[in-house]
DNA sequence: CGTAAAATTGATCTGTCTCAACGTGGGTGG
DNA sequence: CCACCCACGTTGAGACAGATCAATTTTACG
């Protein structure tokens, strides 16, 4: 199987089993692979989505800017994540998508998407994946609304770790997370200064260390407890085994 | 046309024109009308959605509770709003939906939904409606993340007014809004006490008055400016005329 | 190496929370 | 029909998490 769609296929298989045909279809229709540099926009507010985006490497994020220049990240797109194909219906996006660090993405053209959506299993997998992303969005609202800065960051780390683990990118409680402290600040709606102080405290308490774009979780159980993190909303029931299986690549 | 599906039909027609057949189909399949009292759950976290919900009267809200009992509203469901049919795919909801005051809703059974989704125009209308709800969710994240208490409440009022106006329920800058100050607090993630103070100030400044479950907008332009409100994300371009047209009911 | 982005630290300030009353209206039972 | 009650709204005083402002240090990289 071509390396390009490996993570995507495996991510989608979390949501619905795919036939060999469907896997092949994914591969064949993934004709356009694009690379982006940090801060490049993969999609721009006001324009339509350029096609169905699937991230194959790196982190991207939906975001909005306020008139005063502040930025709020609205969602993270990690390797294996696909945008909701329904977004293609919209003639203009209400937000933008940026690369946070170097990103590689497959862009399925619209007619390829139509082919994909004709396959019931693929359509179901895409829909379920979108449902999970909505659930994540609800957690973010909860975080920003009611959690302390400590809990917000800690919950975000749990989420990122779980999502990366689900695609085999978090072997042994550690993962590469190419986020800047400012990115984290814009995600959880806290000042960069305060993010820094909170990260220092997390290090001191030996829960997690986030340094040099690397996240190391020292005590997952305690971290999840501190965050009030319940992974069920991510719908990756067989997290552990799946991750084991995926690690072969 | 039966009164039940009037608002629903007209709301959906904002997103895609429906044929007489499709309108008829909506009516015929809307077999079960249910009434709820304040605080009743229309759907419960952990359970599947009981069918496709469409609100025909009153306000409902998606919400989540935190372990310490605090509540965060995640979305408002106003008359004419339909849940995303995709949610039926999920075996268990990650949040609940409650009635805020008396509510009347149509519950389309699953097989009716399948019929509806076979009609391309209906499927498109439902998808577009869901896209708008997602855009609203992003605005909420922005509000809770970066807007002051004043802007949050003011932006919420702009949103509610625009959405009600779109279904003909806000004639002359005023509308019934059966929310409690606590409901508003749980929506914009502010303390009820502080919501109260902010409402008092809004009255003093003669921008809006919210009292006795009635919202009266004294100066829409200034209110929108104060809120940083840009209605385009609601995708009701012909807001004014449409509202005029709908008012016939 | 030089330069810019990212991280770190300190001192101070403030919007909102917390706690604690008190007012008020509408519904209910005696 | 009155008296009580409970949810909701209103007001005040003080506390605090996190913001803001202002450097300084470290890191990444051309």
Q: What labels describe this entry?
A:
homodimer; 249 residues; alpha+beta; five-stranded antiparallel sheet; three-stranded antiparallel sheet; 8 strands; 44% helix; globular; disordered C terminus; DNA-binding
Write the layout of secondary structure elements.
2 copies of one chain form a homodimer.
Chain A: H1 6-13, H2 20-29, E1 32-36, E2 41-43, E3 52-65, E4 71-77, E5 96-108, H3 110-118, H4 120-146, H5 149-166, E6 174-176, H6 181-188, H7 192-204, E7 208-211, E8 214-217, H8 220-227, H9 239-246
Antiparallel strand pairs in A: 1-5, 2-5, 3-4, 3-5, 6-8, 7-8
Helix pairs in contact in A: 2-3, 5-7, 5-8, 6-7
Chain A binds a DNA duplex (30 and 30 nucleotides) through helix 7.
How would you portray this structure in words?
The first copy, chain A, is an alpha+beta fold. In chain A, 44% of the residues lie in helices and 21% in strands. The first copy, chain A, contains nine helices and eight strands. The first copy, chain A, has helices spanning 6-13, 20-29, 110-118, 120-146, 149-166, 181-188, 192-204, 220-227, 239-246; strands at 32-36, 41-43, 52-65, 71-77, 96-108, 174-176, 208-211, 214-217. In chain A, the strands form two sheets. In chain A, strands 1, 2, 3, 4 and 5 form a five-stranded antiparallel beta sheet that branches. In chain A, helix 2 runs antiparallel to helix 3 (110-118). The interface between A and B is medium-sized, with 32 and 32 residues. Chain A binds a DNA duplex (30 and 30 nucleotides) through residues 148-149, 180-182, 190-194, 196-197, 199-200, 212.
């Amino acid at each position: 199987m071509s390396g390009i769609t490996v993570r995507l296929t495996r991510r989608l298989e979390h949501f619905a089993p795919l036939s060999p045909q469907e896997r092949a279809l994914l591969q064949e229709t993934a004709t356009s692979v694009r690379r982006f540099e940090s801060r490049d926009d993969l999609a721009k507010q006001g324009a339509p989505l350029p096609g169905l985006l699937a991230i194959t490497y790196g982190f991207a994020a939906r975001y909005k800017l306020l008139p005063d220049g502040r930025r709020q990240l609205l969602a993270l797109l990690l390797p294996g994540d696909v945008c909701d194909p329904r977004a293609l219906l919209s003639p203009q996006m209400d937000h933008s998508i940026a690369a946070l660090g170097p990103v590689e993405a497959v862009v399925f053209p619209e007619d390829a998407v139509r082919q994909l959506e004709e396959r019931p299993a693929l359509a179901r997998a895409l829909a379920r994946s979108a449902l999970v992303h909505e659930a994540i969005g609800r957690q973010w609202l909860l975080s920003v609304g009611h959690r302390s800065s400590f809990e917000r960051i800690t919950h975000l780390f749990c989420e990122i770790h779980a999502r990366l683990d689900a695609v085999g990118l978090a072997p042994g409680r550690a993962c590469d997370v190419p986020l800047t402290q400012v990115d984290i600040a814009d995600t959880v709606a806290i000042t960069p200064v305060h993010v820094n102080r909170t990260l220092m405290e997390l290090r001191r308490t030996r829960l997690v260390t986030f340094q040099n774009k690397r996240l190391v979780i020292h005590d997952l159980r305690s971290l999840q407890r501190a965050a009030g993190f319940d992974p069920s909303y991510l719908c990756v029931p067989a997290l552990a085994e799946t991750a084991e299986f995926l690690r072969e690549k």
